[in-house]
Amino acid sequence: MLGMNKNDTRMLLLVAALTMLAPFILNPFPTDSGLAQFNAGYPDLMQRFVIFGIFAIGFNILFGLTGYLSFGHAAFLGVGSYSAVWMFKLLAMNVIPAILLSVAMAGIFALLIGYVSLRRSGIYFSILTLAFAQMSFNLAYSVLTPITNGETGLQLNLDDPRILGVSQTADGSIPVTNLFGLEMRSTFEMAVGPWAFQFNAGYYLCALILLAVFYLSIRIFRSPFGLMLKAVKSNQQRMNYTGLNTRPYTLAAFVISGMYAGLAGGLLASMDPLAGAERMQWTASGEVVLMTILGGAGTLIGPVLGAGFIKYFENIFSKINESVLHSWFSILPDGLEDLLVTLVYPFVGKGWHMTLGILFVLVVVFLPGGLVEGGQRIVSWLRSKKSDDKAANGKTEPAE
Amino acid sequence: MGILEVKGVNKRFGGLQALGDVNLSVKENSVHAIIGPNGAGKSTLLNCLVGKLIPDTGSVMFDGQSVLGRAPYEINQMGISRVFQTPEIFGELSVMENMMIPCFAKRDGAFEMNAIGSVLSQKDIIEKAEAMLKDMNMADKRHMNAASLSRGDKRRLEIGMCLSQEPRLLLLDEPTAGMARADTNNTIDLLKQISDERDITIAIIEHDMHVVFSLADRITVLAQGTPLVEDEPQNIRGNPKVREAYLGESG
């Protein structure tokens, strides 16, 4: 289908089902049950899942295929966000021009930064991208205050021109982002018994874009261009002595992944029209590296899984505080309750990074291929178990 | 005029004169061997031919065009393919993919942005790669990971990859180094077959005299960065100068 083989089609359909049904899948617990805090099916978080999924898919085109590890991709995310907010300030509140500008601006930045950084490979490349990203962060934070509004961050104002829209609505407030009139924040709530499911326009826009760019990344992975990128990762020396110029290949991959990051930044601003310099900081660049490696670098679906995993932890585990823990362990005797709370507390709430760090170490050590490899191992284990059962069920077949 | 003309090439690394006034002419469709003791400058000379090093002085002309100052990929696109001492292949990719990449390089040049079409829809590339795998007796290994091939198979694959670019000059850097006798003989047979069947010039750097004397039409002996003699194999064997410099005085 659509020029893809069976497996890729199945994977695209799987991602489509997951994203379209996310409001159900992420809200498995009734609203007033004790487990409701593990529900992740609210618009804000679901948007983050898919937006950072897009970011990681793009990062994986560079890192997964060519092996060039960029530590500065958050710069393109930030550029995308600022561009989108400026579009909302100057042109209109429609998200389409904002997203287009953020992709284009990120592409231009990626071309400039990539052109210089790709003159080196390995750790030197990583350091160059990190340096450029920190430079962008500092510019945004202080020097370029007229454009970025410094540490306050760029926001919409009542006196913005918005030449194709209105500066303020009839009741004197700032207009909201929309897609040809469909407000991004509009949410339809559906109550089924004790469950409540939320369907948000902004989320579905992001999800559809994720599907489109995921499809594009499948095509890139399977194309001659993708094959060349894998060859760059495998052996640059052989590439050079096979008449292939590696530089334009890596630069193209860098620009494409920068545009993905810009798209993610533009979508972040489209969902919530503000942009701050912290989006460009090195921790944000590091986060996408973690997502990609955790999910499985070089695999198609890995980055999406990794992004979902980390964002879930960040938003759900960080909310578990001491009183929540006490309520969980309240049936236990007092001394034991306090002990358990003391033991568990460092790993949740503000300590969620610790849990994430431990998980990351475990994955890298035991599953170098990330969550995808974990999934593959489970599937092959189930298969071998199945065939064992068959063998045990009577007819013994000669061993091969 | 040979297809490859090296004239007055000098290369100095600090205080070491690696190549001193090297002249070399490789005739079209011949097999030309360059031999010499360790440190004679064989590899330096080869690196000057493929653009990895730039000589301090002198000229290197391939088919009437200078190769100096060009990047390795440009020199390759002119028609010079290189086989490395340790096989340089794409270890993480399948044997078939390894063979397809040079076919793409031949058809599309140094860079081509085809990011949407599937590799599997490139019928001409697949056909060509499959034919070459067959020629190399590797058709049954097409789905294997290239890194898991045996040393001899890696060498065959690398030679096949170079050939699928239809080069006019094939440079081999000690192609049988570290190989078992059987693999060495297979490689000799393969190279003989290539030189007989194809319209190709082969220049080979080799340590193993057995390989050199079974293959070469012409031999250049390098010693201390300078060509000592250039002659046909039977004359090289008996040449006292060569014995002294290379085979050992008593040899």
From TrEMBL, chain A:
Keywords: Cell membrane, Membrane, Transmembrane, Transmembrane helix. It comes from the Bacteria. It is a multi-pass membrane protein. The keyword rRNA-binding does not apply. It holds the Pfam family BPD_transp_2. Its main location: membrane. CDD domains: TM_PBP1_LivM_like. This is Branched-chain amino acid ABC transporter permease. It comes from Parasedimentitalea denitrificans.
From TrEMBL, chain B:
InterPro entries: AAA+_ATPase (IPR003593), ABC_AA/LPS_Transport (IPR051120), ABC_transporter-like_ATP-bd (IPR003439), P-loop_NTPase (IPR027417). GO terms for molecular function: ATP binding. It holds the Pfam family ABC_tran. Residues 4-249 form the ABC transporter domain. Keywords: ATP-binding, Nucleotide-binding, Transport. This is ABC transporter ATP-binding protein. It comes from Parasedimentitalea denitrificans.
